[in-house]
C-alpha cells in the first residue's frame, strides 16, 4: 500500500462520510503539558471511524458482488458501519451477531437496514455462520479489520488530521484488531513530517504489545476490559503494518481508561466510548516524555451504552 492508495481512498469515500472536526481543549493541554488535537470520529456517520473502512470495502466490489450483498460477523461498530454503508449504496447487508450482543447494538443494526443472523457467542460459531451465509446467499464476506481496503479506509481519518495539522510530531490511536492504527501509521508515514505513531492498549487485552515484543501474533486468554471495541486480536494483515510503522504501544489499566474518558466527557463536553479514551490514557500515563509536543489523538467513536457507563 502506498500514498496514492490512501489519497485515492479518501477521494472515493468522501461523498459517503463526514469529514470530522478536530477539537482542542486548553485544560487537557494543561493537564498533559502538550498541544493536543483530537480527531473526532465520534461525530462520524453511525458514530465511529469504521464507517470509512466499511464504505471503501463495499465500493471496491464488482456490480455482481454488490447485487448479492455483503456479510460480516460483528457485535460492535463494524456491524453498524457495514449496515449503514450498504444501505447508502443500495447493497444488502447480512450481519452475524452473537446472541448475547447488547440489544442497543442489535437495534442500531436494524435501524441501519442490516439483516441480523444470530449465532452462539463463540468466534467459531460466528465464522461458521458467516460462511453459511456466503454459501447460501452468494454474499461477499468483509472482515471488520483484517482487509486491505478496510485498513486504507480507516487511514483516511489520520490523513485528514495531517491535512489540517501537517506538523504533528505524534499521533496516538487505540489498538484492537489493528485496522485503525495500521491505517493511521500508513498515513503518518506517507504524509507526516517525521510523525511518530504510538498505540494505546488495555493491559487486559495486550496481544498487540506482546506481539511487537515476540515478533509473532499473540492471543488474549481473557478480555476483561471496559474498552469493548478493543477486544479482538490483531490480524495477519494488520500486524505486519504495525510492526513496520508503529513506534510503540503503551498499555493502560482500567482506572486510567475511565479517568481519561471522564476527562473528555467533563472538559470537552463530547461523548466518547471507553475504547476511544485509551490513547489519551496512554499519553497521560507517560506525559513527561511528550512535553510541549504537538500531538494528534484519534477519538475512535462515541457509541457508548448510556445505561452501562463505567463511571
TrEMBL record:
Cofactor(s) needed by this chain: pyridoxal 5'-phosphate
Its keywords, alphabetically, are: Lyase, Pyridoxal phosphate
Which Pfam families does this entry report, sorted A to Z? PALP (PF00291)
Q: Species name for this entry? A: Aquimarina amphilecti
Per its UniProt record, what InterPro entries does this chain match?
A: TrpB-like_PALP, TrpB-like_PALP_sf
- Lineage, opening ranks: Bacteria, Pseudomonadati, Bacteroidota, Flavobacteriia, Flavobacteriales
Please give the family membership noted in the entry. Belongs to the serine/threonine dehydratase family.
Q: Name one GO biological process term.
A: D-serine biosynthetic process
Q: What Gene Ontology molecular function terms does this protein carry?
A: ATP binding; L-serine ammonia-lyase activity; magnesium ion binding; pyridoxal phosphate binding; serine racemase activity; threonine racemase activity
Does Ubl conjugation show up as a keyword for this record? no
- The identity of this protein, by name, is Threonine dehydratase
Which positions fall inside the Tryptophan synthase beta chain-like PALP domain? 15-301
Amino acid at each position: 500500500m502506498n500514498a496514492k492508495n490512501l489519497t485515492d481512498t479518501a477521494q472515493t469515500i468522501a461523498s459517503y462520510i463526514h469529514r470530522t472536526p478536530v477539537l482542542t481543549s486548553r485544560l487537557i493541554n494543561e493537564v498533559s503539558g502538550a498541544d493536543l488535537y483530537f480527531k473526532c470520529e465520534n461525530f462520524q456517520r453511525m458514530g465511529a471511524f469504521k464507517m470509512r473502512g466499511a464504505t471503501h470495502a463495499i465500493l471496491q466490489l464488482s456490480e455482481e458482488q454488490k447485487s448479492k450483498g455483503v456479510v460480516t460477523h460483528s457485535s460492535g461498530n463494524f456491524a453498524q458501519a457495514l449496515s449503514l454503508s450498504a444501505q447508502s449504496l443500495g447493497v444488502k447487508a447480512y450481519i452475524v451477531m452473537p446472541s448475547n450482543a447488547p440489544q442497543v447494538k442489535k437495534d442500531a443494526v436494524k435501524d441501519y437496514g442490516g439483516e441480523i443472523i444470530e449465532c452462539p457467542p463463540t468466534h467459531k460459531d460466528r465464522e461458521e455462520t458467516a460462511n453459511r451465509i456466503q454459501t447460501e446467499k452468494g454474499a461477499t464476506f468483509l472482515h471488520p479489520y483484517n482487509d486491505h481496503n478496510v485498513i486504507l479506509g480507516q487511514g483516511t481519518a489520520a490523513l485528514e488530521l495531517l491535512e489540517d495539522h501537517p506538523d504533528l510530531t505524534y499521533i496516538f490511536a487505540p489498538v484492537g484488531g489493528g485496522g485503525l492504527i495500521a491505517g493511521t501509521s500508513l498515513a503518518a508515514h506517507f504524509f507526516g513530517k517525521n510523525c511518530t505513531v504510538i498505540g494505546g492498549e488495555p493491559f487486559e487485552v495486550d496481544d498487540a504489545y506482546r506481539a511487537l515484543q515476540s515478533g509473532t501474533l499473540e492471543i488474549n486468554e481473557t478480555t476483561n476490559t471496559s474498552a469493548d471495541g478493543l477486544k479482538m486480536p490483531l490480524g495477519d494483515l494488520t500486524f505486519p503494518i504495525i510492526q513496520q510503522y508503529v513506534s510503540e504501544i503503551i498499555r493502560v489499566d482500567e482506572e486510567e481508561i475511565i479517568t481519561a474518558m471522564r476527562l473528555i466527557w467533563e472538559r470537552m463536553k463530547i461523548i466518547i466510548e471507553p475504547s476511544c479514551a485509551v490513547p489519551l490514557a496512554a499519553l497521560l500515563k507517560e506525559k513527561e516524555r511528550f512535553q510541549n509536543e504537538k500531538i494528534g489523538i484519534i477519538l475512535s467513536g462515541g457509541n457508548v451504552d448510556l445505561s452501562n457507563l463505567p463511571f
